[in-house]
Design goal:
Strand content: under 5%
Structural class: mainly alpha
Distance between the termini: 39 Å
Order of helices and strands: HHHHHHHH
Radius of gyration: 21 Å
Length: 181
């Protein structure tokens, strides 16, 4: 009963919010349409400003994968990862996730097709996707949008969080679902 109520409620939450915003704006004497158009124009200018950064990042990712550098990283790291109990098949996902959401989703899809969603590798891949972020994409978009030239420690903190999340995903999934992959 409660599940059905939540499902019905979830269908109407977004339309209700989209209706509520103009209604509140009307009562507060805000020109809602004009504010929307002004925000859309700012968003368009922001998108144009960050486009070169995004293109550069996507080209670099494509070169990284096509050159074989990703495979070389996997081979180089495999012995250490084996000692840590990390399946080597997850290394491309760990490397690609901070760079590209769509690239990491493609790698995770390959892992799920190869091992299955209920396998340990499939569960770890799914957990990694949910618990890590596309750090370089986030820095490119957000810092590019506000013209930050010196990100200071943002990259180090973001990548540290990604590494910690990746390792936590591996060890928690191994603990919960077994250690055989």
């Amino acid at each position: 009963m409660l599940l059905e109520l939540c499902e019905q409620l979830s269908v109407w939450v977004i339309p209700a919010v989209l209706l509520l915003i103009p209604v509140i704006g009307y009562f507060k004497k805000v020109k809602v349409y004009e504010a929307f158009v002004e925000g859309a124009a700012e968003g368009f200018h922001t998108a144009i400003r960050i486009l070169p950064c995004l293109v550069a990042m996507l080209v670099a990712i494509s070169i990284f994968r096509a050159s074989g550098a990703l495979d070389a990283c996997v081979e180089f790291m495999a012995p250490v990862l084996h000692m840590l109990g990390v399946p080597a098949d997850l290394v491309p996902l760990a490397i690609m996730r901070p760079l590209s959401g769509s690239g990491s989703l493609g790698i995770a899809t390959e892992l799920l097709n190869t091992y299955g969603p209920d396998s340990l590798v499939g569960r770890i891949a799914s957990t990694v996707l949910a618990s890590t972020d596309t750090t370089f994409y986030v820095l490119t978009v957000y810092f590019g949008a506000v013209a930050v030239n010196n990100p200071r420690y943002a990259l180090l903190v973001g990548l540290s969080g990604d590494i910690a999340s990746f390792l936590a995903s591996v060890y928690i999934c191994q603990y919960l679902f077994g250690t055989n992959w």
